[in-house]
Amino acid sequence: MHHKPSWYLFLIDDKTPEIKGIGECSIIPGLSMETEDAVDNKIQEICQTLNTENFNAAPEIPDYPSVAFGLESAWLDLKKGGKRELFSSAFTDGRSGIRINGLIWMGTKDYMLGQVEEKLNQGFGCLKFKMGSRNINDELHLLKSVRGRFNARELELRVDANGAFDVDFAMEIVKKLADLEVHSVEQPIKPGQWEEMERLCRNSPIPVALDEELLGEYTLEEKRSLVSGIHPQYLVLKPGLLGGFQQATEYIALAKQENIGWWITSALESNIGLNAIAQWTFTLGGSMAQGLGTGRLYRQNVACPLTLEGDKLFYRSPTGWDLSFIES
Questions:
Q1: Catalytic residues
Q2: pTM to 2 decimals?
């Protein structure tokens, strides 16, 4: 990917037009269930009807999870005075940060080693490796070299396969990851293979986390069947792709019922969406490293108070917000 399609939804109350609530509708082509044209048309439709219908702060738009997330975020922002502080807490006050993982992207060996060195120098205690796009032996060798320098107490290693492992060889790869004391493997096989995934979760020597498996038009009962039926060790929750905070909260409740862990991840949103997700995540009180480090990937982004100090994300940069990038 060299660019990311996103839409910014502005909500304005005629009584106070100087106050704007802003939400981001963002998709990942090939992963999101929506297409660019479909999202564009849906947003146009919503903009035409917002003034004539009762607006729900957490709208049910199952076919358009990114739009539901954008609407929910914009409404929360508007209600709080359009200051981009949706969930007041010690995080938005700048007093506390959120521990995040350092994301290592696939590439040449030298490129990946360079990323590892950079993240370690920044003070990250948890690194998440994207696997499956290159030779698996090369990727395992890289992980082995990192583990050779830092044991599991010093550095937590997570792996995200994005469904790349072949079902017939997934367990073999997972066992090699276990030898390297990897914390967990995320979505080892493609979604939709519930029986195979359940078997893998039950027999894997390291915890398995579901990610893409959770994306889709699921009712609460269908979510319950998915979570209890596969019974992974973790859920990876992306509010921007699930349909907003309400949808993600349902998964968290189900995970707690089944004694399943979870963490929150952004889905390559710009700083508008990342900010909303980070503020919400802090209110959950999770102790695990969260996946909220994607905002720095872009050459063009919205300037905001989010800043990284070591491996913690804070909301206290002195530069504040600059919306000229999306208002122009």
A1: 130, 238
A2: 0.94
